[in-house]
Amino acid sequence: MTSQTPVAEMHPQRWGAPESATVLPDSARALVDLAFGLQDHPAVVGATPPPAALDDDLLGALRALVGDENVLVDDATRALRTRGKSTPDLLRARAGDLTDAPDAVVRPDGHDEVAAVLAWAGEHRVAVVPFGGGTCVTGGLAARRDGFAGLVSLDLVRMKRLLAVDEVSMTATLEPGLRGPEAEALLAGHGVTLGHYPQSFEHASIGGFAATRSSGQSSAGYGRFDAMVVGLEAATPTGPLSLGSSPANAAGPDLRQLLLGSEGAFGVITSVTVRVCKAPAETSYEGWRWPSFAAGSDAMRTLAQAGLLPTVIRLSDESETAINLADPSSIGGAGGGCLMITGYEGTIEQVEARRAAVTAVLTDLGGTPLGNEPGQAWAHGRFGAPYLRDALLDHGVLVETLETATFWSGRQRLYDDVRAALTSSLGEGSLVLCHVSHVYETGCSLYFTVAARQGDDPIAQWQAAKAAASDAIVAAGATITHHHAVGTDHQPWLDREIGEVGVRVLRAVKAELDPVGILNPGILIP
Amino acid sequence: MTSQTPVAEMHPQRWGAPESATVLPDSARALVDLAFGLQDHPAVVGATPPPAALDDDLLGALRALVGDENVLVDDATRALRTRGKSTPDLLRARAGDLTDAPDAVVRPDGHDEVAAVLAWAGEHRVAVVPFGGGTCVTGGLAARRDGFAGLVSLDLVRMKRLLAVDEVSMTATLEPGLRGPEAEALLAGHGVTLGHYPQSFEHASIGGFAATRSSGQSSAGYGRFDAMVVGLEAATPTGPLSLGSSPANAAGPDLRQLLLGSEGAFGVITSVTVRVCKAPAETSYEGWRWPSFAAGSDAMRTLAQAGLLPTVIRLSDESETAINLADPSSIGGAGGGCLMITGYEGTIEQVEARRAAVTAVLTDLGGTPLGNEPGQAWAHGRFGAPYLRDALLDHGVLVETLETATFWSGRQRLYDDVRAALTSSLGEGSLVLCHVSHVYETGCSLYFTVAARQGDDPIAQWQAAKAAASDAIVAAGATITHHHAVGTDHQPWLDREIGEVGVRVLRAVKAELDPVGILNPGILIP
To answer: Which Gene3D superfamilies did the record assign (chains A, B) (predicted)?
Structure first.
């Protein structure tokens, strides 16, 4: 069964569908002008990609595999498959830089056609970039093309089927091209949900969630995406991989966990079997105020270690709370402190029981309940931040995010060090905001958002800040990325995370599964 | 800090410490005689291993690395490090067959000494078998020695420290040689517990739990061992691996999950950092009766999918319930049906709340509460079955177990098919019992125990039954092992589980981490 509500293409220079593009809200203009100065930074219009490198013989062989209509070489399509949606990606796109455009976009349908495209690419030494939703923010769609005859974007847009639902085992098998809303619409037909809502939800794909170890805003309740996966199939240049005999087993290393997070460098994930849950009858989001980020974080830790997490739990630091644009009326308000959002999903009984238990703990720890309004405001605006980024880029404000995770005992140091590194690099007048949005019994994520007035070279400006933050992260022993994947941006720090031997293991697996090295060259593996 | 309560060596021909050896209980003699005929099968006494193959020069170099007293070549020590504790292993040991004895037992202390021993072994082409508790039941300690200058058992007995406890993050870092009770005694000093209680608990080691993806009887509450691990260090011939920046991350594939379950074939795990929980203030075990295995299984599924699992939940099928030797008074009793054990651990409030919620669901589904007595009987006898096996082997009764797991929708077929395969292979008069002891939202394990009168070649008798069961398991698409690992016994079916490409990935990782192939040759990887 295929989704009846296809997700629209994103704007080539902005986040989201073209018709959804927004301008800076009036309520924020004065504040932004005061903080950074309003500048006019329009995007270049009418840029075209460089001429395609693949000749007609090569393209003809490709067309024979997937059909003429599924090998696209027009400029507009190639522009739409150029890079992802990090701020550097957007800055390049806005500047009219399409140098990373693929030579062609190929749209195979099904595992066998994907395998055939990989065989064609291996034979002719063509680099292949698997493409799901195009929402990557770590440079994972800008593969290296030197040494290759060309580069194609392997677009999974035709693979959007719900292949199976097992309502006894509560699993669903999904094709990788399904975007978040398409998958949820199909699952809703069976009364079930994945419950996976990263900020990229509206455009990101099932295959992308798997290939990048995505984590959603409801991770406290539904788990990370990698924790939902019980099976997967992948096409690799070496052959097919089909994994998932059981929820868990002891039949050697868990190879599912080797494909999850492999970012298209080991193979193309052609289906994913995931644990699903009954669609919630009740959802309820609330706000809490804490006197400090530390006090709110400690409360999160208490809940996680007591096995009492809500479905959604997130905590903004003092700065993010003050700048909360999702609720402009609260800016500079008398409240102060740190805003926490708690969300509950499930049956009415589950929601009530969990809410009562959590409320008792949070009240006991000194939290102040703020009722449903802040929760509803958050839920309403939960996918909106990337649109605001575009509106700020229009006005010469550099906005970007980065995220990390550590164990609870290291949280304060990590927060202090990364904040100091970003502030020091971006200079006076920059804003550094942070929130915790994914918690575990043993630790949590930290998600930073920065804003600064753009200098002459905003990409270099960000790269310097990112490098300073990444250095601080690895020095603190934390992870270089909790849920955004490695791509190219995190690669310089990967060996600090998994060691030289860990990198060698990745290279060995890559050499076995992709001996010619056509899959996402330069992505993930240093 | 090191444990003050060292676990004793196991008997070379039986499970458990020599002084714990038992005879067949009087209450069972008549039943066993009726079912299988009481025979007298004494073990051979005084067998010695073949002469050691390593010469003095090689041993001298090894002694220089770890100290003279830590290179042992006496027959008794070598005999104690021969194979594991599967029924075929015991049958061989009882027959006086010590042909798999190592040439020496080497006891390094710490990561660097382990690495030095691996370097020595690589240089001289000596096979190395990492040894933790020696409880393996899948042939994982009988490495291949052809093509090697010799074979040493790398005994982790000196690595028994609790290296760190982080009471904020609720993690502990343990050395691999700690046996279950030793680890728990050290953790109890900090008021925390791992909560990992496989049947082998009294003798198995932390390193073994990690290397084999062990799952304990309290897995519903505390999780599988692999789910507890947040970090690990390993010595490999290629170099050190140190993983675990964070509870979870997106920094590429999760390489922790590649070392977990690697059965000593990729490296020697030299420390493990695990999530711990507060030691429970309250524990409570209860019994329930179900009209059928299917009804009880469905109730387990309902609990798992509602997020309402007890800490322990297990369900015996009709046969296992009838033959429940842990509670002989119930045999042939009027109850019939299937016995379920539910256990609750935590604070008094947690135990009461979870018990109330579970009781409501189970009552609603048609379960009959049996009170605490069956629960206490189970808890009292939970580690006892392997002793009973020895007592039955003394009387010529072949007893062995195997286990698998599948998704809920496949449970009935898997149960029927494996049961039929075992019954058919072992013939009339054999007993096949089954229980579910590990449940997930999407599926469960099935654990089979068989008993039959020993034929002339009991090892071949079991191997035929095991092969029939394994064929049925892979035909049903289930896992060849839920928590006993691959070893050598499951190897013929591994390619059916992970595919030819999956096996190639394991080989590639092995070649990278252990290029000479000294680590556990012939184990895990076909």
So the answer is: 3.30.300.330, 3.30.465.10, 3.30.70.3450, Vanillyl-alcohol Oxidase, Chain A, domain 4
